[in-house]
Amino acid sequence: MTYSIIGKPLVGPDVPPKATGAARFVDDMALPGMLSGRILRCPYPHARIVSVDTSRALTVPGVLAVITGADLPLRKYGLAPNVAADRYTLAVDRARYVGEEVAALAAVDDDTAEEALDLIRVEYEQLPAVFEPEEAMKAGAPLINGDGNICGRVAYQTGDASAAFGRADYVREDIFKVEAVTHAAIEPHGALASFDPLGNLTLWTSTQTATWVRSVLAPVLGIPEERVRVIAPSVGGAFGGKSGVFSHEICAALLSRATGRPVKMVCSREEVFAATIRRHATNIHLKIGVKKDGAILAMRCRVVAESGAYANMGPASISYTAAFLTAPYLVPNVDFEAVRVYNNRSVCGPMRGPGSPPIRFAVESQLDRVAADLGLDPASVRLRNALQPDTTTPSQLRITSCGLTECIQEATAALAASPRSGLACSAFMSGYNLPPYVPCPGVVKVEEDGSVSVFVIHSDFGQGADTGVQQIVAEELGLPAEAVRVRSGDTALVPDAWWSFADTFAIGNAAQAAAVQVRNEIFRFVAERLEARPEDLTAREGRIFVQGSPQRGMTFQDAARLHLRRAKRPATAQAQYCANTDMLHVGQRNVSRAYSFAAQAAQVAVDLETGQADLRLVASAYDCGRALNPLIVQGILEGGAVMGQGQALSEGLEWLDGQLLNPSFLDYRLPTSLDAPQVQPILVETVDPEGPYGAKEVGQGSLQAAGPAVANAVARDAAIWLNSLPIKPETVLTAIQRGET
Predict the structure, then answer these.
(1) pLDDT by residue (tens digit) across 696-725?
(2) pTM for this predicted structure
(3) How would DSSP label each residue in 324-391?
(4) In order of start, what are the domains of the chain with their CATH numbers?
């Protein structure tokens, strides 16, 4: 079928303001009488708070309020109201990591706030700390949060792994370690809170989860949700790092209520690194059993992931590790267990494909070793085990469309001239099956001038979600894209939803359903005027007309006015999409309505004298369903490849006794434009029956295979095996010296 808007490389409505500097981020905002907020943070990894003296800070001219944990109601928060609620806004009895919030203040300007912050005196009693998850699990380890240091456990068995290992022609075991990395969004976290005289709060915050913030913030403040409005203005990158609720958001609100004036808090880069969230450091023990032809019979996997001092997403991340251990392959027998462990470091949370990149590194590295040991081609092993369309896996993933085989073939063909290239595959979910099963809403309204407004709750933080929704609704109503305005990231605009995730799939389905309702409602009145049946009408290029007789019709604008006159109201519809409604019969392990697949191949050149790996080329083949906007999909694939490059070769948080040593872009080694390789995006369009116009997820899955592909390329080029990320030059040299081939 030929579409007018879908599949076209349109420039999104967010691009011009960002390119020209007109986009307004939190730090660009100002309100009359606005105060500057600051947070005092603990300098120790584990300490009892003996006393906090704020008296000197309060004497500084221009300081209007200072708060501590002792001043606040004892209301904990976490993943959601009453879910994984294990921390206070400001530490009350103990601080559990370097950077934890102890006190906060508001002053007339930044300099006054900084001066006063230095005058707060805190007496600490340092406590024993534990940093490595395996140590934290041992008997006698310091208790960090609650009665034990295990804050999440996921386990499942499919088939009989022990028996399958006995039937295998070849069995291999390896241990892998992936260090923690951070999101490194360009814009730091920030929030601006303003209470009005009636006790209503408006919070502008750099978030990808506006309703999540509202649902947690309201009970912590002790006010009804309907008195809280959360707005996400332009968001300068997120990658999962701006999901959930942060102490600076709550502190800004508390200080605004205390002073009666707006309060803005913007985190420094060091605070973003040390005191927001990061990806989990993960240790993986993986065992695989295969036949001589490379067919996988069984996997046994044990995962230990650090949590940091608080739960945040809790078991959810390791649940995704469980779900995507075997995906994208058909593995009949699996024995899996993962634990998430409290330790005295900053909190871990979701990051671009939660729980998936570490396990993909382990599985994809091990498959290359299996191929080498059996004398098989790495691509052939993956093709032998690749999932196929219309399959329900032994672990109950219901696969609809699947272009993995084509992805593998396309990626390997792109680097056929490089015999030492590395290959890796991945799969990820579109939409999600995650409690509390809150549907994603969308509202479509036809304005009096014939333009269309779409109201959705997601935040567009660079992934092109607004553009995708704009194209879906424009196509459905037969309008040019510029006639559709998308308003997003504001809890006052739409009914309740939980958070922004896989936006174009979930929100796109809701917006499309609402657009269909609006179109059908308008068609009824137009059909009556044209003396035709509604089902004989079509909408295209701004007109509604009888199919086969384009002269019998009217402009969409005239149709909107006709509806307004006859119905006495604008054409408006609301629809919801819930990934779970039709999934429960499959079982709780099916985490999505559709899955995207990828194969990424990488070419590197390793200097055997220095250990430096130079990434030259990445071919990224991605099964995206239908590409709603190929330009955006290609950009996402390029970004995922470069992010994977960084996490494979240079990025990693470095610690000394709980103190983060590299909390800046000077010391945290992000790839720059000078380091970025040539990226060849390859779109494999399978057109999924569950997605809006057949679209599937792209943003999260485009990272998963990139790092493992680079790691496998380094391993092949240097003729070594590598068991940890990142692969720094010293890692390569050590492996060469030890003869780890």
Answers:
(1) 999 999 999 999 999 999 999 999 999 999
(2) 0.95
(3) TTTTTB--SEEEEEEEEEE-SSPPB---SSTT-HHHHHHHHHHHHHHHHHHT--HHHHHHHHB--SSE
(4) 15-22+438-577 (3.30.365.10), 31-127+185-238+242-275 (3.90.1170.50), 282-434+585-738 (3.30.365.10)
